[in-house]
């Protein structure tokens, strides 16, 4: 949208009267929010609500602004006020669900998204956000079902990657590979996607392909230890022990949790013993 132009018009209208009408202040705040000028948007919307405190739509807009400013509790309070004034206001309910997620109240957020989907079963955003709630709650099978529906409605690289990661967690390695490869068809792919695909290919025993994907992951993000770990495992599986040792050393040079560090050290010892026996 041409929000900068719309904001300029609204600000011009606001300057023509003192004090500006509430509806003009609200319009200024709306466009400031669209332009990510959230602190200014908060001030404009608050001024509008001082003049007309019973506008549920403005409360919903300010709730989203509070959330973008990192104040989810205040966002939730505005949503509750908005819904008390207008119980069927979809934007307020959706903003309330987002505020609940920001507050890590995932069961309540998932329940609210379920109600929202009953109102609009074609909203891909609600399926995607409920899927994220289920992921946080470790309800992975339900997460996959929501991502299935979201992908039917609107395929995207991010959703394929998210479903692939969960399929990998659920030991559906072939399904994970299919999802990661589909994600790469829809977008350029980041280090995480190549690393996840490399991990899945390793688990499927497709070791040369795994090495190629993990090469790409490391080129994009040389700091991630997981890519070195799985490339080391793949090299070891191919009998390339010097390469495996180099990868394990690279992983150990990075920040690892104690348990993960112990695992890599054990793998390195095994690879060193195998190399010495050749």
What does this structure look like?
By secondary structure, this protein is mainly alpha-helical. The protein is built from 16 helices and no strands. Helix 3 (38-51) runs antiparallel to helix 4 (56-68), helix 4 packs antiparallel against helix 5 (72-85) and helix 8 runs antiparallel to helix 9.
| Beta-strand percentage range | under 5%
User: Structural class given helices, strands, pairing?
Assistant: mainly alpha
> Topology as H/E string?
HHHHHHHHHHHHHHHH
Range of helix content: over 70%
**Poorly predicted spans:** none
Q: For the residues shown, what is the average pLDDT?
A: 97
Q: Would you report the number of β strands?
A: 0
C-alpha-based Rg, rounded: 25 Å
Count of DSSP-assigned helices: 16
Distance between the termini: 65 Å
Largest sheet: none
Described by the principal axes of the CA atoms, the overall outline is elongated
Compose a concise summary of this entry.
This protein has helices spanning 3-15, 22-34, 38-51, 56-68, 72-85, 90-102, 106-119, 124-136, 140-153, 157-169, 173-186, 191-203, 207-220, 225-237, 241-252, 258-277. By secondary structure, it is mainly alpha-helical.
């Amino acid at each position: 949208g041409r929000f900068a132009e719309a904001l300029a018009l609204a600000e011009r209208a606001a300057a023509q009267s003192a004090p500006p009408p509430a509806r003009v202040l609200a319009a200024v705040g709306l466009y400031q929010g669209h332009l990510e000028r959230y602190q200014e948007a908060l001030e404009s919307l608050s001024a509008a609500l001082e003049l007309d405190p019973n506008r549920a739509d403005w409360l919903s807009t300010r709730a989203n602004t509070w959330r973008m400013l990192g104040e989810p509790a205040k966002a939730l309070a505005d949503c509750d006020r908005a819904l008390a004034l207008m119980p069927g206001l979809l934007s307020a309910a959706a903003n309330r669900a987002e505020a609940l997620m920001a507050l890590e109240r995932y069961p309540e957020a998932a329940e609210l998204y379920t109600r929202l989907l009953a109102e609009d079963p074609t909203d891909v955003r609600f399926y995607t956000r409920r899927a994220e709630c289920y992921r946080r709650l470790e309800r992975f099978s339900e997460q996959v079902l929501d991502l299935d529906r979201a992908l039917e409605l609107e395929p995207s690289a991010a959703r394929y990657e998210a479903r692939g990661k969960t399929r990998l967690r659920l030991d559906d390695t072939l399904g994970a590979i299919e999802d990661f490869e589909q994600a790469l068809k829809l977008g350029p792919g980041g280090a995480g996607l190549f690393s996840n695909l490399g991990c899945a290919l390793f688990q499927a025993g497709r070791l040369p392909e795994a090495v190629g994907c993990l090469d790409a992951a490391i080129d994009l993000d040389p700091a991630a230890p997981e890519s070195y770990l799985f490339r080391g495992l793949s090299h070891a599986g191919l009998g390339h022990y010097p390469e495996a040792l180099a990868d394990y050393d690279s992983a150990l040079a990075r920040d690892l949790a104690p348990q993960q560090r112990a695992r890599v050290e054990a793998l390195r010892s095994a690879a060193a013993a195998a190399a010495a026996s050749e």
